[in-house]
Amino acid sequence: MKRAPLLRSVGITAAAVTLAVGTLAGCGTGSDSAAGNGPSTLRVTLANHVWTDQIKAAIPEFEKANNVKIELTQLGEDQLSDQYNVKLNAGTDEIDVMMYRPLQEGKLFAKNGYLADLSDKVKSDADWNWSDFQDGPVSSTTYEDKVVGVPTITEREVLYYRKDLLAQAGIEVPKTMDELKAAATKIKDANPGMAGFVARTGKSTAVTQFSSFLYSFGGDFIDKSGKSAVNSDAAKKAYAFYGGLIKDQGPANVSTDMSWPEAMAIFTQGNAAFYTEADSLYKNATDPAKSKVSDTVGFAPLPAGPAGSKPYNVPSWALGINAASKNQDNAWKFIQWATSKDMTLKIQQAGVPGPRNSVWNDPAGISTYPKDLASAIAVSAKNGVGHDRPLVISVAKAREIVGEPIVTAITGGNTSEAADSANTAFQKFLDSDK
């Protein structure tokens, strides 16, 4: 089978670091040990992330309990993509456990046969409990009805807002899109120089946050038959609403190349009343060292559109097993351990949102989060959609196409025509994205 080329990630990443971590053999026999009485070597490749830092610190306990020596490779996103590009394309068996991004390269990896089928494994341990994982993230680590990964890190879109500005205006927290628009308009009109609303505006970077508006208006990027749906009535209304909200209630002379750092800065410098963004970035708004409005920030579920409140609820990272690995039993033991209830709770308490319902329902699991944020997350997790961009192979190209009508709406162009044009281009893209 001809394999599609891997995609290079785009972003600022830390320098590559390769670590070998090992301890003396514990009791018992490694199931894949060549000698039969020594520790098996398990090669684990993880991304630079706070989640990884927590796992790395606990690796010695896993090694001792399972008579396994971990060889850990820890890399930045770009370096991780480079290694996968070289090694997986070559059919390597030198990677056992691999940390990957389900929404960025998950379809490509699964289609190329890089990821082992975990369907039977996830159902084999009632105590580990696969049913405890949230539906949205699970849908994104499933390919053609086969489970190919286990979510580790999740995020959802929520509404950030200024409690003080709402109180001054006598406004309740918006529960619908129409209420959000009305509240943003009232606050902007009453406060010269203040934006009523801010969000990402870049053609590609805004796609993920726009997606929640799209779903809440009843649309999606691709319909159930696999065809482009970015010019459906629901999609056109969503494009017009999101772009129009930024155009009319957003910052003056707003740029059309803002990603989250720029949009967040406008909010945290006290220059916007409402902001929709990933919950995982909340500390940027609540940390006094980063935010001038840290003591007045509130959080709420994404306001409901015609189809309800349907924010994305996605896994930003997951663990999979290299299909070519000769140490899959130990690889699965590692994944079970790293994604167990106890480990998920520990990591979530360190500020990394996890995928388990039981941890979110545990007071200890939300003890380090603002109460209103935890409540918003609970709603978003229940109603959330498992993708925040088109689920395709060439993700970057797809985002450029479906993001074009966002910019058109922000700049006051004909959104309907832009959506029609994007739909034609996106369908052509889908026909070739195989």
UniProtKB/TrEMBL annotation:
Gene3D superfamilies: Periplasmic binding protein-like II. This is Sugar ABC transporter substrate-binding protein. Residues 1-25 form the signal peptide. The keyword Signal applies. SUPFAM superfamilies: Periplasmic binding protein-like II (SSF53850). The keyword Cytoplasm does not apply. Keywords: Signal. InterPro entries: Bact_solute-bd_prot1 (IPR050490), SBP (IPR006059).
